[in-house]
Amino acid sequence: MPTAHSLLNSVFGYPAFRGAQAEIVEHVTTGGDALVLMPTGGGKSLCFQIPALLRDGCAVVVSPLIALMQDQVAALTEAGVSAAVLNSSLDSATAYRTERDFTDGKFDLLYVAPERLVTPRFQELLRRTRVALFAIDEAHCVSQWGHDFRPEYIQLSVLHEQFPNVPRIALTATADELTRAEIITRLQLETARVFISSFDRPNIRYTIVGKNSARDQLLHFIRTRHPAQSGIVYCLSRKKVDETAAWLCAQGVPALPYHAGLEQNVRALHQRRFVNEDGVTMVATIAFGMGIDKPDVRYVAHLDLPKSIEAYYQETGRAGRDGLPADAWMAYGLGDVVQQRRMIDESEADETFKRVSYGKLEALVGLAESAGCRRVRLLAYFGEHATPCGNCDNCLNPPRVWDGTEAAQKALSCVYRTGQRFGAGHLIDVLRGNDTERVQRFGHDRLPTFRVGADLSDKQWRAVYRQLVALGHLHADAEAYGAFKLTESARAILKGEINVSFREDAEQPRTRHSRSKKADFVASLGNSSSDPLLQALREWRRSTALEHGVPAYVVFHDSTLEAIAAARPQSTHELRGISGIGEKKLERYGQALLSVLGQN
Ligand code: ADP
Ligand code: ZN
């Protein structure tokens, strides 16, 4: 009789369980119900896959996403586990055969779409089959208030009613309390044990930069940190997605667009290329991402501000699922705050909803403007306490915070004297004393604020206005094309009743604080991409994946290839010690790997 740990070694090739995995596996294997809250990349799948192998019968896994199911089944099959999918993508002959094999007990795991699971026909199959457990993946789909709501998920309560003795494990990466409570009541998991993991993603480095020329900043980021690696760039509009993708291609970055306006087959093709190929950048609206299981996405970049911290965290969470270093990078500017506020203002929603939306946006703007550790702030938002992480922009290059009271007074007074009818561009011309046609036309060169701000650059004034809006001292009027209006607190600043401080937008990363860590990191990137052995291993993986018709990471993860390149194993025995090489893969690929190693 194998143990959980021996299966972890022999089937999956991993030396040890992570976090709460061991406890969860033990609990479910012995027949307990569980609700598992774990961040993306935390390792939820093993929590039901190993109990599925340990318990008698076949585990039935409910998952809302066809692509995700197929990926998991491909990975399990590669590892030598007997698993199958049952969803609408199958022709009826294949579906029939799969059902028969299922009732004949040929599988250890069967992945089923929720709409199929709740049909009377499938319920009947379940009654004729020995079911090891039910796993309900992406369990937050049961929440009517969430954006991934799937009505069929509500009917999953029949599982408990019809099969009270089969253990159930529900899993999600959605953290908030409300969703958790809803999962428990709707799926009747009141007596289930709840396992909550930390939502920290320590391998993700958070960076938020002030927007100047966002595209160039993005290109610089990609070229210096992630040349030839996979990443996602999020934009708000379809038009911007198309333009950015085309521009990146012209600059030599292989990029593909993805949004709901593209033909279905084009979208599918782009998604497939992104998943299967190494080093493709997907430029996308938020229509892209849900259910993308690609573990080696090295960065997620935002060219526009998301709606909330939840959205930001979910989107950035798609980076680095394999645990290797990854970046979450965002360029953020005044226009973003104005635009998001306008979208809320102009939406059809009721007042309560608008108020909640403003609050959520404010929290995100607070994160973007913060001079403290980004991770501490993110985790605090989800109710977790943390200490400064050493792996975000603010920890690595603490921003200078300066007393901006006088600058704020000049900026606000300029708004006031020009009649609260202008946006940042013109106001900055007045402050800096630029003699533009517009300045002339309105006679603003005769104002006392004309040229009082020549000491700060255009860019610095832009950052000042952005922060005044972010801090609520100015209101950008949507109806007047973003003209600034003073708020109550602005008057207090003008009267000298409150002081303001601003964070200085980093120009170039200053190296003094961070040289060692950062240099190490960059060096490690450089090494890994220039190591000929690693390149040969990647090349071998690419052709093998093509041959087997699976994504490259299903053959081996980057982390496994890197471990091989570092250890240079010389025998099957030495290969066995590498994380990510189980018995089946050793048998299947061991010789090929050793011959690649022999030639390099
Ligand atoms: P989730 O579903 O929580 O997003 P996955 O189950 O896809 O995460 O796991 C994320 C990655 O971590 C996968 O590549 C998986 O193979 C790997 N992984 C999971 N558990 C372990 C472990 N104990 N040791 C090493 N790698 C693991
Ligand atoms: Zn930090």
Structural account:
The chain has about 600 residues and is of the alpha/beta class. It folds into four domains: about 5-195, 3-Layer(aba) Sandwich (Rossmann fold); about 205-330 and about 370-395, P-loop containing nucleotide triphosphate hydrolases (Rossmann fold, 3-Layer(aba) Sandwich); about 400-505, Winged helix-like DNA-binding domain superfamily/Winged helix DNA-binding domain (Arc Repressor Mutant, subunit A, Orthogonal Bundle); about 530-600, DNA polymerase, domain 1. The protein is about 50% helix and about 15% strand. The chain contains 29 helices and 17 strands. The strands form four sheets. Strands 3-4-2-5-6-1-7 form a seven-stranded parallel beta sheet, with helices on both faces. It has a six-stranded parallel beta sheet with strand order 8-13-12-9-11-10, with helices on both faces. Strands 14-17 form a two-stranded antiparallel ribbon. Helix 13 (about 265-275) links the parallel strand 10 (about 255-260) and strand 11 (about 280-285). Helix 15 packs antiparallel against helix 16 (about 350-370). The longest helix is centred in the middle third of the chain and has 19 residues, at about 350-370. The model is unreliable at about 510-525 (pLDDT under 50). Zinc ion binds near residues 375, 388 and 389.
